[in-house]
Design goal:
Elements (H helix, E strand, L loop, with lengths): L2 E6 L3 E7 L6 E8 L3 H15 L3 E6 L9 H16 L3 E6 L3 H11 L4 H27 L3
Parallel strand pairs: 1-4, 4-5
Antiparallel strand pairs: 1-2, 2-3
């Protein structure tokens, strides 16, 4: 099953995907847009390119686990994604994924300037990796 993770932001989003076995995770791309319409247009193209069967949508909760304004916005995105394609959408806690992505990139020797350009894509990678690890632990993967 091909899975696609989205780390959503108001100006750009990071995208990561799996191969069809859901064993290999690929940091896919960062998309930039000026408005929500631009976001959905680009996501629709990505859906056509990779044909995912499931979307893992990073849910930006507060550190105490409560919903934030942004997490409510992300939940609203799910409805728009469903209009593009009737697809299973999973919300996944994305707390600390940007920090995890920064550590990963720093360990790989990626410059701070380059990190700014790709951090969202690697945050989506971390979301997808954590989600798949959780499925594996439960015996669902």
């Amino acid at each position: 099953m091909i899975r696609l993770a989205i780390d959503y932001g108001r100006k750009r989003a990071g995208i990561a995907i799996t191969d069809n076995t859901s064993k290999i995770i690929i940091p896919y791309k960062v998309i930039k847009y000026d408005n929500i319409k631009g976001f959905f247009e680009q996501i629709e193209k990505i859906f056509e390119e990779v044909n995912p069967e499931e979307v893992i949508l990073g849910l930006p909760l507060n550190m105490n686990g409560t919903e934030s304004e942004m997490s409510r916005e992300v939940k609203g995105l799910a409805q728009g994604l469903k209009r593009i394609r009737d697809i299973n959408i999973v919300f996944y806690d994305e707390r600390l994924t940007t920090f995890e992505a920064q550590q990963l990139l720093t360990e790989q020797g990626v410059s701070a300037r380059r990190q700014k350009e790709i951090i969202d894509m690697y945050s989506a990678y971390c979301i997808l990796k954590s989600y798949l690890n959780e499925l594996k632990e439960k015996g669902d993967a």
